[in-house]
Design a protein that fits this description.
Blueprint (H helix, E strand, L loop, with lengths): L1 E8 L1 H6 L2 H20 L3 E6 L7 E6 L2 E6 L8 E9 L3 H8 L8 E6 L9
Antiparallel strand pairs: 1-5, 1-6, 2-5, 3-4
Length: about 120
C-alpha cells in the first residue's frame, strides 16, 4: 500500500536554529531516505520552499481567486513529503522514527487505492 508522509515544522523555529542543529536534522532525514531507498519502499520525496513562496488558488462564489501565501494560518507549516510503498502502518513507522525525533509533526495518510479515472 502507498502511504504519504506529510512533514510539518515551524519555519520560524528552523530559522532560529544554529547550523549544527539544522545539519543534524537534515542528516536524520537523509539517513531515513537512504534506508527507505535501500529497502525499496521509497516512491517519491520532496522538500518545499518556505511558505513565503506559496500561492493559493481558491474557488469562491465569484470565481477563482489567486492569493499570495498559504491558505491556512497554522503553527506548523507543510515543509516536505515522502511517498512510501509499505505493507502496513507499522512498516511506515519504522522509517518515520528515523527522523521524527527532531521535532515537528509527520502526518501519515494511506493513498486511496482507486486511481482517479478520466473516463
Amino acid at each position: 500500500m502507498l502511504y504519504m508522509l506529510l512533514i510539518y515544522g515551524r519555519e520560524a523555529d528552523w530559522r532560529q536554529r544554529d547550523r549544527t542543529h539544522r545539519a543534524r536534522v537534515m542528516e536524520s532525514h537523509i539517513k531515513a531516505l537512504q534506508m527507505e531507498n535501500d529497502d525499496g519502499v521509497l516512491v517519491a520525496s520532496g522538500r518545499l520552499l518556505p511558505t513565503a513562496h506559496a500561492t493559493t488558488v481558491r474557488a469562491t462564489d465569484d470565481g477563482i481567486v489567486v492569493l499570495d501565501g498559504p491558505f491556512a494560518e497554522t503553527k506548523e507549516q507543510f515543509g516536505g513529503f515522502q511517498v512510501l510503498n509499505c505493507d502496513n502502518l507499522d512498516h511506515v513507522l519504522k522509517y518515520v522514527r528515523q527522523f521524527a525525533a527532531h521535532g515537528g509533526t509527520v502526518e501519515i495518510r494511506p493513498l486511496h487505492p482507486d486511481p482517479i479515472s478520466l473516463d
